[in-house]
Write a structure and sequence with these properties.
Blueprint: H1 7-13, E1 25-28, E2 31-34, H2 37-50, E3 55-60, H3 62-69, H4 72-78, E4 82-85, H5 88-98, H6 108-118, E5 124-129, H7 132-145, E6 150-155, H8 162-175, E7 179-183, H9 188-200, E8 204-207, H10 211-216, H11 224-228, H12 232-239, H13 241-263
Parallel strand pairs: 3-4, 3-8, 5-6, 5-7, 7-8
Antiparallel strand pairs: 1-2
Helix pairs in contact: 3-13, 5-13, 8-9, 12-13
Length: 265
């Protein structure tokens, strides 16, 4: 994971009152997460877009919360998103602080197919993330799986500079995409959406992590029984131990310490 806990930084982000009964949200390590369940999240997104408002959506797991705890800029960016709970870590934090878990696990890899299948909208979708080859395969897979929507563009998630970003936003505007799926990992994808999303002209933007890699078949999903036990992180760790060891081993201990400190405030 990122860095070691900083006591003063941790104390600054953990001052939070219990959520109001009508708020349906919980604040964990300085990040407000909506407790909507799958049906509620889809309905909220559809209703907000139908009013003509822009919606930015991301998914907060233990790594997201760890990064946000130590990065004020990231916390501020997340305040402009509809943040949904992702994974066992968010549930553990919610149980420790509020005594109850979230209604459902809304990890992006499973939520996105559900959303695309059930939304009332027919979307024009642009993909930004991973490599060009992976983005192209993901575009084909999504077009086959969800023919009601139109994939209008795709490109990698690596930019050579401001001009490249501006050209990408221009291309997305020209394609008349109303939905952009950005898969660059945390926190880059949320920063990119926060800083450049408005310039794309899209009314709906998702930070989707490795969703494009999964859709393209570039990264395999854990077996269903492993996902049911909520141990997919272990499966991914075994597949990419060098890249993910710090995130899942050291990072999880840092996360638990921060959560316990948060709960005592």
């Amino acid at each position: 994971m990122s860095q070691e806990p900083n006591d003063s930084d941790t104390m600054n982000v953990m001052q939070d009152a219990a959520p109001r009964p009508d708020d349906r949200s919980r604040t964990l390590l300085g990040v407000r997460i909506r407790d909507l369940g799958r049906d509620g999240a889809i309905a909220l997104i559809d209703e907000t877009v139908s009013r003509g408002d822009t919606v930015k959506v991301c998914f907060a797991n233990a790594q997201t919360l760890n990064l946000a705890c130590g990065d004020e800029r990231y916390r501020n960016a997340l305040r402009t998103f509809v943040v949904l709970n992702d994974g066992l870590g968010a549930d553990i934090a919610s149980r420790i602080k509020y005594g109850v878990p979230f209604q459902e696990n809304l990890n992006g890899t499973d939520f996105m197919p559900d959303f695309l299948a059930r939304t009332t909208m027919a979307l024009r979708i642009s993909l930004v993330g991973s490599t060009d080859a992976v983005a192209a395969r993901a575009a084909e897979a999504l077009a086959d799986a969800f023919p009601r929507h139109t994939i209008v563009g795709h490109r990698n998630g690596f930019f050579s500079g401001p001009q490249d970003i501006e050209q990408t936003c221009c291309d997305i505007r020209k394609s008349e995409a109303d939905c952009v799926l950005v898969g660059m990992g945390n926190p880059l994808q949320e920063f990119w959406i926060d800083e450049h999303g408005a310039n794309t002209g899209a009314s709906l933007l998702f930070g989707v992590g490795a969703f494009l890699d999964f859709q393209a078949g570039h990264v395999p999903r854990a077996p269903q029984w492993v996902r049911h036990l909520r141990c997919e992180w272990m499966f991914r760790l075994l597949q990419e131990p060098v890249r993910l060891a710090r995130r899942y081993l050291i990072g999880n201990f840092i996360f638990l310490g921060r959560v316990l400190f948060d709960a005592r405030r």
